[in-house]
Design brief:
The chain has helices at residues 14-23, 31-38, 44-52, 65-73, 76-99, 132-143, 147-156, 160-166, 177-196; strands spanning 2-7, 28-30, 105-109, 124-129, 169-172. A five-stranded parallel β-sheet has the order 2-3-1-4-5, sandwiched between helices. The chain contains nine helices and five strands, in the order βαβααααββαααβα. The model has no long low-confidence stretch (mean pLDDT 92). The protein is globular and about 50 Å long. It starts with a strand and ends in a 5-residue tail after the last helix. Helix 6 (132-143) crosses helix 7 (147-156). It has a single domain (2-196), classed as 3-Layer(aba) Sandwich (Rossmann fold), CATH 3.40.50. The chain has 201 residues and is α/β, with parallel strands linked by helices.
Length: 201
């Protein structure tokens, strides 16, 4: 089974691209969705997060995600602490999910693929790319975050140059949704051809 690692900066369009792949019948394993599930009330990850980030848990035991995000992205030590709690659990869930699949290829949506040097997890790295100004405008529109907070998040991620340097495949997502869908379809056909010709991988 071919494993494609999809990554890109915040606001690049990773989720939209993944949705297009999914509409073509490709199994999607999304690290962010797994993280969300692992931090629901009653989950062990949330219990450990509550020990270190008690101010980010409300009275009903729910995680205040926006508050936690703001706190960790402005403090490297706290960011590292949170990652040490949640990332091993995410990794375990991803590999468990892969083992249950029987298909030509799977798309692993891993925002920190490059930052955490997880290239040994995948056969190819697909980067969704767009200019930083477009990232900022998209995140503002989607989440309502202030520009300085968005820039802090971007600064904590791999640089655009480093992403493009390690990419096997690149989708430039600075146009319409239809253009993105067409780019996804072309890569889907390419990945299927690789699955049919193992020697070409």
């Amino acid at each position: 089974m071919l494993k494609i690692g999809l990554t890109g900066g915040i606001g690049s369009g990773k989720s939209t691209a993944a949705n297009h792949f999914e509409s073509l019948g490709v199994p999607i394993i999304d690290a962010d969705k797994i993280a969300h599930q692992l931090t629901q009330p009653g989950q062990p990850a949330l219990q450990e997060i509550a020990v270190h980030f008690s101010s980010c848990i409300d009275n009903q035991g729910h995680l205040l995600r926006a508050k936690l995000r703001k706190q960790v992205f402005s403090n490297h030590t706290q960011k590292q602490l949170l990652e040490n709690i949640i990332h091993p659990l995410i990794h375990h869930e991803i590999f468990t999910s892969i083992q249950q699949l029987t298909c030509d290829y799977v798309l692993l949506c891993i925002p920190l693929l490059i930052e955490k040097n997880l290239f040994n997890w995948v056969d190819r790295t697909l980067v969704i790319d767009c200019p930083e100004a477009l990232q900022i405008s998209r995140v503002k529109r989607r989440n309502g975050l202030p520009t300085d907070q968005i820039k802090d998040i971007i600064d904590c991620q791999a640089s655009r140059k480093s992403r493009l340097t390690v990419a096997n495949d690149i989708i430039t997502n600075n146009g319409s949704t239809q253009e993105l869908a067409e780019s996804v379809k072309k890569l889907h056909n390419f990945y299927q051809s690789l699955c049919q010709s193992p020697a070409d991988q």
